Amino acid sequence: MFVLTMYYKNILPKKYSESNSYLLLTRIIIWTFLICKVHSKLDQRYIGSMYGLQNETLVNQQRGIRLDVRKTLAIQFYKNNTKTLETYLPLTENKLDKSGCLPTDKFSIVLHGWIQSCSDEWAVALIERLSFYRRGCVICIDYSYVASSSYIRLYANFEYISEVIVSIVISLFQYGFDPSRGYLFGFSFGGQLASAVGRILQPQFTLQNIDTCDMAGPGFDPIDIDHSKAAKNVQCFHTSRDKGTLIYSCHRNIMLGSCGLSQPSVASQLHLGSHGLCVDIYINTFDYPFYALRKPPTECISFAKAANIPNDFTVGYQENFNKQVIGKIFVPTSLHYPYNLSKKELQLISRMNV
């Protein structure tokens, strides 16, 4: 462990502070040791990819690494939780007319992760919740053809996918949609995409809200990106230490479970793992209260600013963003579905935390 620490410390960029270096060293070392450990079906996919990275030769990496995103990416439109249109690029005014979505509607865009699609159970559930609570037009962008390849190929196409999604969003604006009524949600790799899309749109267009769930870390850390610049209000939910980013630069960094690094419910939901549980917990915040601790837990190392938490503050999708609550927010989670704690349980934890 000492040798690994000294090795990685020497290769980290000099600009990082000691605190940031500690977090980044922890990420790299943990990833090194956990790469051979299987926790869930989702974990197996990641680990298989990592072995693929090691075994794939440079020639194979370079051959065909740029996949044809524009021809395979599907755009799915929903109104009242009913799919009204599935189409491909270019996104024309005629196609938008057929979608039933109006420029006066609020619009939500959902971006999935690696080895996922808009047909995944969590994506279907989120579209339903957004249709019920937020209403308006819900759009899921399905790039599963690219996402079904190895992680290194997906990562190599990150900028290209981002540019294609930006072109879709700009088409919506040209059709008359209002950026101030726009919301993006991204899980894992999709979380990094959501932030990138929001930042590319600046300064001409500024989206209102972006929420991300356990934004991917592998391939993206340790680059210190300011995700708060992606929209007026950016919330990032964190659930895992090995797959989620350790860059906490959103307006709100919501640290779920044990310091945002693991979830107690992995004991009852082994097929999801701490990473995959993020979207389940996020979807449950629409219907169940997830109360935040007013003070950071003593066991959680926090170099970033902790938010000033009002009484009975709950986290989740929030259309009316309270700009007074900015920073790290710690939200304990439970062993079983729906993974939230009652006020009484939270008070008990708070007393133990004094």
From TrEMBL:
The cross-references to SUPFAM superfamilies, in alphabetical order and at most eight, read:
alpha/beta-Hydrolases
- Cellular component per GO, a single term: extracellular space
Alphabetical list of InterPro entries matching this protein: AB_hydrolase_fold, Lipase, TAG_lipase
- UniProt domain Lipase: residue ranges: 76-241
User: What is the superkingdom listed in this entry's lineage?
Assistant: Eukaryota
Query: What's the main place this protein lives?
Result: secreted
Q: Which residues form a coiled coil?
A: none
Q: Which family does it belong to?
A: Belongs to the AB hydrolase superfamily. Lipase family.
Protein name listed in UniProt? Lipase domain-containing protein
- The protein's organism comes out as Drosophila virilis
